Amino acid sequence: xxGANSPEDDKGLxxxxxxxxxxxxxxxxxNVLASHRTGTKDPRAAAALRxxxxxxxxxxxxxxxxxxxxxxxTDLTAIRDVEAILSAIVRRTRSLMGTDMAYISLNDDERxxxxxxxxxxxxxxxYRAIRMPLGAGVLxxxxxxxxxxxxxxxxxxxxxxxIPEIDDAVAGEGVKAIMGVPLRASGTVIGALLxxxxxxxxxxxxxxxFVESIGAHAAVALENARAFGEMGEALTALDEARSRxxxxxxxxxxxxxxxxxxxxxxxxxxxxxxxxxxxxEFLRSDVAVVDAxxxxxxxxxxxxxxxxxxxxxxxxxxxxxxxxxxxxxVAGEPWTLVAATAGSECLGxxxxxxxxxxxxxxxxxxxxxxxxxxxxxxxxxxxxxxQQRELIDDMLAEWSDHGPALRRRVSQYRLTPEGPWxxxxxxxxxxxxxxxxxxxxxxxxxxxxxxxxxxxxxCLVTPGEVALLDGQGALKALKAADVTATIGCSGPVNGLAGxxxxxxYAQAIVRAxxxxxxxxxxADLTHLGTAGILLGLTDQRLAQDFVEVQLGPxxxxxxxxxxxxxxxxxxxxxxxSSLAPTAQRLKVHPNTVRQRLERIxxxxxxxxxxxxxxxxxxxxxxxxxxxxxxTGEELVQAQPEDPDPTGRFDDQIGTDA
Length: 657
What we know:
Helix content: 55-70%
Strand content: 15-25%
CATH superfamily of the largest domain: GAF domain
């Protein structure tokens, strides 16, 4: 029968079916059909074999693609990092599609743009940096979410909206064919997945569908990664919040313990000096406390802070205004300071030797307790001062009868009403009076005595006969606390009635020190003598005029010729106008003293050392000596040995016109 297979052909059919079952490429099938051993002469049978083989081959290809797609989806969903997912998407897509490049874009809804977020196979930076308006080009059209789109040759395809700078980037990359699909997540288009070739190409519907499948899985994987990322951030934030809560709880526990420690200290009436070591141990840092003027009260370690009183005082003012901690530099080291306040008044400050520690709340709480301590001390001091002020006022009052009641009050301060007493006037600047009062109270703590503000100055009353000793001790204590003071000390007086007299003498001595320009010193009647008392009764200008009237010529002579005629005159009168003792004290030859006296006679007149004028000269010389030598030095200073015992050099001075 025509067209029927021969017996030989029928024998080759089972072999062909076996090849089809195993899977044979179309080209290989053609080679088999063309061979005489297994070929068939019936063209319809050959066509049927080709169709069956093509169907089987396509089915196997689809099955392989599905397996690959499933594996890709599985891999993508296992990745939790967004960057890793994006990289895997473009890498797998390019590999599966066999294209020159693949890239993924994400939408910027605020700017109405889509931008390339990750790419694989892209060579130029300009192409990787493309930002396309939604709706323009293949990328913008796909990212708008309508449907997949492709072009065989983008630059020549007029069906798309072109942007010149984007076209330049495409030309620079050499791209021809582009195909893309939108990425949708939760019903929203979040970007696009594209593949491209540098040659002309038309992507089949199967290829488009395959990229769509990859895109669907990619969008889900991205959303999952974002969700995991947000969950991770939420867990991190939760952990941080938990840590902060634990830190806050620890801080509250520390505050409770600090309250217990400081409350116990308050109940035990501990002083500031005893509180500071407790704070240093609790805060694990060096601690210092200053008063309202910035002066150190006490610290946990000796010489802990520098004497930068101005800087500390300014920092305390800033802290008081802000009601919080401030940083400052002390001796080049960072410190934290919190002011201790009562209302709007700054009482002092707590300093911690570290820059703004985490335990700032503890320092601030310490400042609250310091405020209580300082207020308590101030109340006690004010109460004590009130009692001592009334007692001193009564002792110095003209109407006081110094009866038994006053004598009993005096005895309460370990003072003997019969004396002897020493009265000291302590003159300090107004702004330092409170600090000076605290220092003098501390100075008297181990001694007997009274101290209080009286008529604009501090009055210090001590028992004993050596007034200057207590005066100099008080001055030393005040200087150590950076308090500027001038102290006048009376001589020893007996009985309560003598206190008023000692007070007047001490006032005159302070006034004399001021007239002499010797502020910041301590002196008594022994140092100043009658001249000092007279100075205390006059003013500075009058005293200067008196000295100039009496001694002007010899003072001018000494200044211009570098001589010591004034010192010679003072020594001469101070030794009873005796020539030999004067020469001995000056360590010069008697002839030298005689010739100097003759020169002084020429300058002042011979009566300067005789009769009534001698008193004026002696007082003026005493004032001059007090002003030039001061009260803290010996009034008689050793002079250099006379280089000329014969007095010849003084002869020349004496005859020099």
